[in-house]
């Protein structure tokens, strides 16, 4: 989300802010899966905010909704640079938006869902799946099918991918780093409430902010210095603040995705894994 200074509008503001479930009793494997899910969703949102940064610093043309455009950029970067991990990172991000949408029936739609800067969570999820399958049908059709994209749309997603990929490559080409580095990107993990200690630890240990900063400076020549912070901000959100050249990741954002995984996604994934195992055993008899 891109916001004017000090005018924070909630990206996911309708979500409740319960204490994170990090402290719940989990097996090591469950905890690792929850951390991976959290970091995968966080990586996509960091690249999304970097997209806003590029639009602002490079004065890029954006022909359509900026929020959709930077979502696409985040997805394209992951598809291009994360190799075999891209599949898991993007599948987790798809689930992040899908499960966010599932919480909607309890609060219903309001006009702001339609006039807001962002597309609906379910649309963001479909758009991501569309770019994935558009980039490589054979590799990603099962993900697109899983979220319910029909085959004819999966096929036409190749055009969506080509257009998004060509457009971003074209506007970013003059700003790619060839030799000299541009302005610096600093990283800080700021003060936090004790309830987010574990989330802070997860983020620090992963060095995800440092990775985002390195990625920007190694790949592009930015004009103005940038500060990337993780901090407690009282809402589930992430921002780019153009007046301060500041990308802000809220601890609440990471905590929310951790909770979402532990409380909803993990039980479902475990259930389906068990069903699949039982089916295999039955077939083998
Ligand atoms: Zn945004």
UniProtKB/TrEMBL annotation:
Residues spanning the signal sequence: 1-23
Name the record gives this protein: Metallopeptidase
Natural source organism: Pelagibacterium lentulum
A Pfam family this chain is assigned to: DUF4344
Source organism phylogeny: Bacteria, Pseudomonadati, Pseudomonadota, Alphaproteobacteria, Hyphomicrobiales
Keywords: Signal
InterPro entries xrefs: DUF4344
